[in-house]
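Progress report, Aim 2. The chain analyzed during this reporting quarter is listed below.
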Amino acid sequence: MNQIFRQALLVSLLISGLSSFICAAAIGVEVPSTKPVLAQNPESVADDNTTQLDSDTTEPMAQVTPITELSDVKPTDWAYLALQSLIKRYGILAGYRDGTFRGNRAVTRYEFAAGLNQMIEAGLKNKVSREDMITLQRLQDEFTGELTALRGRVDTVEARTAQIEANQFSTTTKLIGQVVFDQNGGTSSGRNVRDPNVTFISRVRLNFASSFTGKDQLYAQLQAGLGNDIDNAGQYFAGLGTFSGLDFANQSPNFRLNRFRYNFPLFTDDLQVSVFTSAFVSDYVDLNSYANTNTSDFSASWAVNDYLVLGGDRRGAGAALTYNPSKGPFTFTAVYRASGANNPASSTANTFTGNNPQITGNAGARRDRNGIFGSPYLSAAEVTYAPTKSFTIRVLYTYGFDGGDRFSAIGTNFELALSKKVALFGRFGHVFDYAPSAIYNGFGDPGQVSGSVITNRAQPNFWTAGVAFPDLFLEGALAGIQVGQPFIDNSIGDVTETNLEAFYRFPISNNITITPSFQMIVNPGNFSNQGTAYIGSLRTVFNF
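Predicted C-alpha cells for the chain:
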C-alpha cells in the first residue's frame, strides 16, 4: 500500500504541475523558452515588484544525471529513494553542471517550466500506466475528506493573509512602539537637603524601520515625555553633583525627531555605513550586553555609558563606519558627530557664566563654528575584540571640540559570561583634555556643586564594575548590580563620589516588563559633608 501510495502521489504531483503550467499559459503568463536559472538570494532582492531575472547571468541545469553522480545527495537523505525512482523510472530529473542537485533551495518558474518541458519531451504521458491512474483515483476517493479540510485551511490562510495585507501599516515600514512608566523618589542624609517628592514620569517612543533592499534600513525615532526639566530624584539631587538622573527622564512633551539614520552595506556586507541627521555616538560605540539600555537594565546615566569618554554624548548629525572582516573576532568602528550641523551661523559658547557659573575654562566666552565640520563635534574610534560568544572587550578613543575647548579621552569596556546565569562587566575611562561644556550639556557636571570649580585642565578618571544574572528565577528576567566612581579628580571636593545601582527586571509577558531599582550615592559631588543619597524607582516598559 505504501508503495502504491508513493507512486500515486508522484503521478499526482506531475499531473498537478502539468495542469498548473497549462493554466498559467491560458491566462497569459509568459513562459520563457530560455534555459532555467537559479533563484536570486532573497536578501539581494530590492523589491518583489521590480525584480528581474537574468537568464544570462545564472547557472543552467544540466541534462538527466544519475543519482550516484549528484555530490550533495546521499543514500541517508530522506528523499533519496524518491529521486532515484524519478531518474530510473521516468528519466526526467536534472542536476546542475557542477554535479549538485541543491535540494534545499526553492525552484524558480523558469526551472519548473524547463523541467515540465523536459518531462513532455521525454514522453511521460506514455509512461503513466492505466494502473497508476486507477490507484490515483482510489486514493483521491479515500482521502476526499482530508483533501477538503486541507483546501478549507488553505482558503482560510489566504483570506487572513489578504486581510493583513489590506490593513498593514506599510509594505516597506515597520512601526515599533515603546512606553515607559516610572515611579521615582529618594531621600538624602546630607545637610540642608530637602527630600524630593515621589514623581510619576513617562516616555513614549515610536520607531519606524524601513528597508528597500533587504540589507539596508531607514530608521526614524519620534520621542515625547512629560516635559519637566527636573522630574526625578536623581536630577533633583544634581545640585549635590551626582550623575544619577534617570536616562529616560525629563523629555519634551512634544514629539520630536530623536534619531534619524540610514544604514547600508558598502561594497561588502562586512562594511556597514550609517549616515544620520540625528543620533548619538553611543548608538555605535561603548555597547555592552548588560549595562547599556535604560529600558532593560540600568537606568542612571553613569551606569549605562562611559559618559566622560563620550564627551557628554550629545545629539548631532554625522556618519559611522563599522567594519567586521569576514565576520571574525575583530570589529572596527569610526563615528563623527557634529552637534551644530543644522546651524549655519557661529555662536557664542558662554558656558562659563549664567546658567552654570561653577564651570570655568581658561577664558570667558568662546565661539562654536557649528555646521557639519565646526565645533562642537566629537569623533570616535573603537576596536572590539570578541574571540568567543562569552567574552568581548572594546577600546575606545574620542577627540573633539566643545565650547571652545579641546576634548580627548580613552576608555575600555568588557563583558564576560561565566555561565548562562552569571556574567561580569565593567568600564574604565580617562580624559586627557577636559571640555566642561561638553559634559555639562550632555549629562550634567559635578561642578554644579555650590562653590566648586572644574577647569578644562582637569583630567578625571571613571570606572564601573558589575555582575549580571540573566534568567534569574524566570526565563527572560535579568538582575544586575553595579558600582562605580563617575568623577575621580582632585580638582573638586575632598573625597570621591561612589555610586551603586541594583535592579531586577522580570517579564509579565512578551511585551511588558517591570523593573524595581535602587541607587545609593555616597559623598555626592566628591564632598564628604554631603552625606548619602538613596533613590528608588519602579519602571514599567510596554513594547508593541
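The CA atoms of residues 481 and 502 lie 4 Å apart. The radius of gyration is 32 Å. These observations will guide the mutagenesis work planned for the next reporting period.
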